[in-house]
Amino acid sequence: MPTKETGKKTGPGRVRELAAYAAVLVLVGWQFWVGLIDLTASPALQGGPAATARFTVEDAARAERALGDRAAIYRALVRHVPAGAVVVAHAAPTPEAMQLVTNLRNLAYPRLVVPTATAFALLAEGRLDRPAGTFLLDLDPDHPLELGGSELLEQGEGFVLYRFRP
Amino acid sequence: MTLTVLELVWLLGVPLLVGLGLLRWMGQPCGAERGTTLSWAYLVGSLAAAAVLWIWTLTGKPVPGAALWWGLGGVGTLLAVGARRCRAGQEEAASARMAPKGPEDALFAVVVGLLLLHVLDEATARNAVPILAGDEGNIWAAKAKVLHVAPDSVSPAFREEAALFVQHPDYPLLNPLLQLGAFEVAGRLTGADSRLPIQTVMLALVLMAASALRRFVRPFVAGALLLALFTTDMSRFLAGSAYADHLVMFGLFAAVDAWSRFRMTGDPRWFRLSCLGMVFAILAKNEGTMLCLLAVVVVGSLRALRVLAGPIVPPTWRERGWLVVPFCAVLAIQAHNAVLAFRNDLFDPAVDASGLTGRLFAQFQEHAGVVAAYAWREILVAPATTHLVFGGLLVGLLVIVLVPSRRPRTEFLVPALCTFGALAVYQLVFVATPYEIDKHLPAAAVRVAMHVAPLSVMAQAMLWGDLFPALRSRERVRSPASALQSGSR
Questions:
Q1: Is residue B206 packed enough to be buried (19+ CB in 10 Å), middle (13-18) or exposed (0-12)?
Q2: ipTM of the complex
Q3: For the segment A21-37, what is each residue's pLDDT rounded down to a tens digit?
Q4: Do A28 and B128 touch (CB under 8 A)?
Q5: What is the model's pTM?
Q6: Contacts of A109 in chain B (CB under 8 A)
């Protein structure tokens, strides 16, 4: 409520205003602080000016190690499978194997990598009849598929690549 | 990264050049800050480049892609050099540059600079690994790859290829078309480079948000809000990715910011840019269409209820005609999908015959509690996840209720209602999900909430500036538009 002399508010209203102002200042100050702290977690600020380059190199090395098998299989696909061909990927039903198939799918395009289950559905619909041919990538050597008449193209650690001749 | 430095400059420079040219041709730049002009140029130029690439694929790619990009660059140069400059905009820019700057402004500039470096850093780090999985691989880059390889984008061959290789082939085309630009500049499919045009959007959003927030609050508060917004885990993830969510953030924020500037100044150029911001959001993701519709409904309702005063100069019918452009964008997406017989899985009876509404009622009892608890814990009151970019708005509403002597102008209601409206609609969509709720929520809830995070911080900036004069922007106090506005609601 305003006093007659100064026009300034006094009493509970003024206290509430001050409390609200303080709360907002605390909120804004906290947001500033937490933002700064999280900025320091960014790769470049973590280790000084050279960190970005170092991070990139380290990350690339880590990515290469993680790619490991993926890179070998990718090279085999590019060497043997023409663009536009379908590659039926037979893999164990584990999250890691499924992830590998997804990664290969995105890396190898325009070779079309499809999981076995999808491939059977597509075969049933007559949609796998590609002029560029169909290939089979066996990523589950413990449980190989029956591949009568198929031509072996390349065999690496953890994978076998065939030209599919049903 | 496989592009050379020159190719990289050409890839990102062409949309910027085309955008700058188009802005001048439309009577821009009218923004006072150079950073905002660059952001708008990237938005307008990206839209133009995407439109040209879309037409190019629809017409069976009559010229080589590299030649098309050169042509775009040439047109952009001609427009940027030849189009008349806007004198009013120049004067405005000059007066802004002459405005006195203090240490707090310097601190703000440092914060914006750090955030730009931060975004660049996230992008550089991520580009060490090619696009392999997730939505960026299976939806956006996948569609861009099919667009690059297929002879066109309407034939049965394209349809077959997209249906086999792309998840959600019905999704809008802005992101894939911008990635397609990278493939055409490189002349081949690339592993990580196609992320670049998408990552640049986050840089543009930082600049645009910085400019917008400074209109309402002093530099320290604007800096705090920017830091909170752009250093969340999800912002950092999006900054490095080729997802389309930050495209929605950018388009929607641009639309609301431009509309707010139009309302304050009556400058019709802002109205046009607001419409183009909506087009950007609509072409980015289907959620963009929903959010733009929500924004139009919010503004329309507030105006109809006389809660919000109109612009100081009402738009002419010619200006209102620009609203047709976002509408045409929606129609273009629908027409393209209709030709290719692509349907959205949320509405596709082949996925679930009961449809979205049927699932909403059927699953409400089972899902509502889970979804509400997740939203409260991970989005609204989540210091670690969202840095209270939404919780801060709740604090603002609480202040209005508890301190009735402080009355903010009703302008903040537009971004605030868009924020809460969008969050509410998203939670309903999660209630009606056809997928497993325990997997769908962690995969998407925070990410889609971020679509309206920039609007939430804009609403907070408006509130803090109105409620506490000590936090108000000096520019706002001096601005003639502000004096006009203070007499209105």
A1: buried
A2: 0.85
A3: 999 999 999 999 999 88
A4: no
A5: 0.90
A6: 142, 145, 149, 165, 189
